[in-house]
Amino acid sequence: MSSEVYQVLSSGLRYWFAALGLLIVLRSFLWLWKDHVDKHRRLRRLPDAGMIGEFVLLSGSGEYPPGTTLPVPREGTMGSVRGCDIPVPEAGLQRLHLDFRWEDRKGLLIIPCRGRYALVDGEEATRKAPGLMGHGSILQVGRACLRLRLFAGLETGYRVRFQEDVLDPATPLRYGAAPLMREEDAPSPEDDPGEEAQP
Amino acid sequence: MSRKRQSESVRRAGRSLVAAVMLFFFSAFLLLALRDNAWQGYALAAAVPAMVWLGTYLLPRLIGGDRLLLSLTNFLCALGVLVLYDTNPAYAYHQVIAYGVGLAAMTLCIRAVQWFSSWRLLILLMAPVSLVLLALPLVFGREIYGARNWLFVGGISVQPSEIVKISLLIILARAMSRRRFWFWSLFVVACLGLLMLQKDLGTALLYFSVALLMYYAATGSLWVLAAGAAGGTGAALLGYRMFAHVKRRVAIWRNPWADYDNAGYQLVQGLMAIASGGLWGVGLGLGSPRTIPVYHTDFIFAVICEQFGLIFGLCVLAMYVALAWRGATIAMGASHSFHGLLAMGATLMLGLQTFVIIGGVLKLIPLTGVTMPFVSYGGSSLVSSMCLVGLIQGVASRNEDDLAEDTRLALAQEEVGL
Amino acid sequence: MKRQRLRFKLLAVFLFLLFGALAVYGSYSVLTYGNRWFSSIRNPRVRTQREQVIPGDILDTDGVVLASTDPEGNRRYAEDPAVRRALVHLVGDRQGHVSNGVETFQTSYLYGFQASLLDQVGDLLAGNARTGDSVQLTVSAPLTAALADAFRQHETTAGKPAAAVILNWKTGAVAALTSLPSFDPEDIGGTVDAGDKAFWNRVTQARIPPGSTFKIVTAASALDHLPQAREVTVTCSTDVLDFGGHTIGDYGGEAHGTVDLRSAFTQSCNKMFATLAMNLGAGDLRQTAEQFGFNDNFLFRDLVVENSSFPERIGSDYELAACGFGQSSITATPLHLCMIAAGVANGGVMMEPRLLQRVTSASGSQRLGFSSAEYRTCMSPETAALLGEYMRGAVTGGTGWRAAVPGLTVCGKTGTADSTDGGEPIVYGWFAGYIADEELPYAIAVVVEGLDSGTTGGSTAALVAHDAFLWLRDHRPDAP
Questions:
Q1: B217 at the C interface (CB within 8 A)?
Q2: Which residue range is the domain that position C417 belongs to?
Q3: Is-contact B110 B397, C-beta < 8 A?
Q4: What's the CATH code of the domain at C459?
Q5: Is C337 domain-assigned?
Q6: What is this model's ipTM?
Q7: pLDDT tens across C103-153, in order?
Q8: Which residues of A touch B49 (CB under 8 A)?
Q9: Pairing of strands B151-153, B156-158
């Protein structure tokens, strides 16, 4: 092609390229926006999205009435300030008290921050040896005593080591009373082999 | 039902986006092929749209991933190939190969994020390897453009700092999400020190700011952010005092016209190229982009602006913004701190790198020699940028899994009987 | 996680702000400086295009050809050698010796960079070589030639480096612009003497202390900031004001007796203005000066003009007092002083100087027409009216009497400024003034460099201005 013809062709096509560029940008932002709306709609239909269960306050220093439920996300922090994912403004809790993290087929890991104290089913959790919680486990931080209730359908490889009936006379069970573990690996508390935490 | 409809419309938007991208490159390469009447041009006119289709359409079918991110990434990569083919075809052929390798590496990164549930062993392996990689050019490397940051292995040149970028990001995300700051901050300092020794200040700046911002994201500690920014400024001032070439860069930035024929030549040629393009550009394949020194790496944005015009240049900027927006959305949607930090860190890395180089070309900030992600010539840079996008997409597919799990749980709740 | 998400959002916003800054800065700098970068003679793209495109013509306001391309493809300049030499700095030359002449600064039109696609297709089909747009300027060739000639007519100005510019004070259109010494673009080798900076466009590039013409600004500042400015009187004797070794006296050691602001202005009494500057203080005076465009980055669309400066930091009382009458380190270009005079004439509104009257494509369609734009408002209409009276006084019964032309209401201010060039003292003679007539709205600034001892701005520059006014009165041009 002669260079004169090419010059005219190319300088004509620059509008075409600019238009395509604008189209691509426009389309991408439209896509972003649509996805944004779409996601909100989906999340509205899934009020518990991102959550794995909830803590039920059994007893505390009185900031929250007993029986208060606190939703538990897959990962986050617990402490006395509202910025934490699970705010527990009970006495004895530090501003940032512990990190927790859900691990599939294991359970909820409890990792206290440096110098903080937390008891999981009566045993101290440390940074080196994080506490592991399953459905029905009890977490004691400060003056607060919290019981974990997992959603149905979550798998844990964890056995509850604590006789719970002492502690929860009147906790309402929203999701039914099933232990919510796989039948085969969820022994009932009765035939739980004698764990050291058992009284 | 409505969800399905919505997804359908999103899918339609996606299809027309991919079609527009393919059309763009088909017509552009055809135009260049007509100019040169060379078979390579026709081959690229077929191959590049095919790669775009492969990358945006087939890839997410096979392994999942985010289609919008893929469309934008593929557009930018192919744009790089296009501009390189226009200016120097030999570079374009290399870039096409790197583009293919990049797609593969991206797939690998997506898979890695999907598969690995524990990164502990991996990072314990990656940290020393990274440091060794960064140290290698000091021993074996050759100095190019005043920096000693290249490694030559069997005819292939590799920039270790680009590879280390990925491992640094994974290590930082892991350290920050587990609140293990002190040990790993030493690692960052070691990396920065090695980069300083390589005189690769642009990359050092990038690493430093990404590490700082990630620390802020993880802890929310404004004090450390402020102290880090102050420390960075102090280090910059110290560098300004100590290194003559830093002083020169700043002087050029303040007035590139003062020493037009020598020091300011590069920047001035870039500005002239952008100004010559005007709003609409001079037209693809016209103008004289090759008069800009390093038109193929640092100044590729000036070439784009010359050929396609300021409006298109702004469109390219907007594409990076869309990319960053997507990355940030994915990071915010992550339900694990590690994944969130990984996606956000990758987004910040890409965003800041783009800002630093385009800001340098436009004379908003002093020029530092980093590449423009996806577009600039350079295999290491292209592959590592693709890896970063791969990490973001891995997190996206994790988020999808989590959302699917949430849906499953909600259904299980209903079954149990609410 | 909750907080972390929030911080992610903040970081994303931070990134968007960075990109926003890029987009805004990039667009701004390309749109404002783009033509300056592009038209640089160092731009290799322009060189390439010059080999392919026949550049368009440059015409004056009445259609006199200032530059054209002959059938052999050589660039030819105006036929009349006097016009050629008078306008060479404005028009430029084929080699680009004159920086930012129309020949280089309007490259995008002259060399067809703005050509529409239709024109290009038309040229291609017709098999024509591409021709650039022709550019018509607002300047009048005979007026400029007369202006350049006026310097030669007077004994006190002949042969000296000088510059003069005439603006239409209503629209800002440049009616004439000439710089001396000049050279002939058709015969550069034979007419340029290496030592005398002939390629330099003194109107836009020379930064000269404005001397007493700066008193317009000082007076405006005093009228705005000092409520009793019009009542102040100063007794001006032959004594000098002493500032610890530095002294301020009047030109030639004159004494003006007891003067108020008006008589001080018409007699150009330095002591009065030194006193005013001391009373105003550096801050107020600088503020007024900056309102008049000092320290501004001039980004006019048609002309590249050096910035004028008023000192950012004034160290001593002596310096401040000297600022009052335009000495110290104040500098301004002749074009800027002309804009100041035009601002007084136009009721305190300075117009942006414009040069392009019309741009026409090779096929004859108009691509750009004349448009005028305000540069900025530098003072209130009342202050401007009062200053106009003072400037009228300076011409009817003051230092600028030589500029008076019967039949015209000429207003003006003279100035004589001292400067040094590499240790050697140089004296500049200034005149800045205008015709207070809506039908003949012209403002002028004249500067003559290296005055002989005993001459002043009033006896050099004012004479040239007089000749220009005379020409305007007799020819009454009707340019924009």
A1: yes
A2: 205-354+372-475
A3: yes
A4: 3.40.710.10
A5: yes
A6: 0.92
A7: 888 888 888 887 777 777 887 787 777 888 899 999 999 999 999 999 998
A8: none
A9: antiparallel
